[in-house]
Design brief:
CATH architecture of the largest domain: 3-Layer(aba) Sandwich
Number of domains: 2
Main location: cytoplasm
Radius of gyration: 21 Å
Bound molecules: 1,4-dihydronicotinamide adenine dinucleotide, (2S)-3,4-dihydro-2H-pyrrole-2-carboxylic acid
CATH superfamily of the largest domain: NAD(P)-binding Rossmann-like Domain
Largest sheet: 8 strands, mixed
GO molecular function, one term: pyrroline-5-carboxylate reductase activity
Pathway: Amino-acid biosynthesis; L-proline biosynthesis; L-proline from L-glutamate 5-semialdehyde: step 1/1
CATH class of the largest domain: Alpha Beta
Number of helices: 11
Structural class: alpha/beta
Protein name: Pyrroline-5-carboxylate reductase
Helix content: 40-55%
Subcellular location: Cytoplasm
Oligomer: single chain
Shape: elongated
Order of helices and strands: EHEHEHEHEHEEHEHHHHH
CATH topology of the largest domain: Rossmann fold
């Protein structure tokens, strides 16, 4: 199977390296293309067997599965350039929430899917969100699921829940990092610990927490129960959180829902 990656920014580079590092694909099975050549040159330096296409039609000719890894508003220009080059055997994959399989199917005659990755896939971990189009063959569905299973947990999501699902798995690392920065700054302000030391403690706590989930040692509820010693400090801290969290997350999810609606209205394929 030949894989094509259009756009080798954050996500296109991550997909290229994760496909190779996880063993899902060999470097010589992947063709990459980017608007400027600096980013493809960097990948080629790391994996010399990668094929770097000079043009989008050349990439389409060389590949069966084609990932479009550009920003949502750049999809239109890519689709206009590739539509004549794609045939029944091709499968085009959107990696962005606002570009749905229905919209891609209207514009392209080939098979389509959407797979929204996460920066956590860099560590060969985390989730990838799958939505299949109506024309994609069962063989290609299986192939995509198996490839992504090498470096993530593929989860199917319905269109109605793509925004919130991606908020959790794809935007989540940024959201949680923001909250942890606030936590570190507060630790410094209230108790005088240096931000550097608090960052080291926090990062290692998160690594340990991830391992507990990864090894299925505790659930969220069990963790709260096990750490809360009766009459101890955790209970007091949890109560303070409960008293002050308020509508924080409701507002965050509302904001992303509103932006998603706005993006869908402004993105024309
Ligand atoms: N950053 C993230 O954590 C995630 C991003 N996504 C989606 O991935 C897509 C890409 O995001 P990033 O990689 O973060 O953006 P980015 O800006 O790092 O990468 C986009 C790349 O596309 C290239 N590009 C733009 N127009 C092009 C064209 N006409 N032909 C060829 N290459 C072109 C740019 O040069 C750049 O290298 C977005 O649609 C985003 O919604 C999805 C999940 C997570
Ligand atoms: O399309 C998405 O949902 C992702 C999440 C982060 C950026 N784009």
């Amino acid at each position: 199977m030949k894989w094509g990656i259009i756009g080798t920014g954050n996500m296109g580079s991550m997909l290229t390296t994760s496909l190779i590092r996880s063993g899902a694909a060999q470097a010589d099975e992947i063709t990459i293309y980017n608007r400027s050549s600096k980013k493809t040159a960097k990948l080629k330096e790391a994996f010399e067997d990668l094929d770097v296409a000079k043009t989008l039609p050349a990439l389409c000719k060389a590949c069966d599965i084609v990932f479009i890894c550009v920003k949502p508003h750049d999809y239109k220009s890519i689709i206009e350039q590739v539509e004549g080059e794609l045939h029944e055997h091709h499968c085009v994959v959107s990696i962005t929430s606002p570009v749905s399989v229905e919209e891609l199917e209207e514009k392209l005659s080939c098979q389509v899917a959407r797979v929204v990755p996460s920066i956590t896939n860099h560590a060969l971990a985390g989730v990838s969100l799958f939505t299949f189009g109506s024309r994609i063959s069962t063989d290609n569905q299986k192939l995509l699921r198996e490839a992504f299973h090498h470096f993530s947990t593929p989860v199917e999501v319905e269109e109605a829940h793509i925004r919130v699902s991606s908020d959790i798995v794809s935007c989540g690392p940024a959201f949680v990092s923001f909250l942890l920065k606030e936590w570190i700054s507060a630790a410094n302000r209230v108790a005088g610990i240096s931000e550097e030391k608090a960052t080291q403690l926090t990062e290692q706590m998160i690594v340990g927490l991830g391992e507990l989930f990864s090894q299925e040692i505790f659930t969220l509820e069990e963790l709260m129960e096990k750490v809360t010693v009766k009459g101890g400090v955790t209970g007091v801290g949890l109560q303070a959180l409960e008293d002050h969290t308020g509508e924080l997350f409701v507002e965050m999810f509302k904001a992303t829902q509103a932006k998603h609606r706005e993006d869908k209205q402004s993105i024309e394929l």
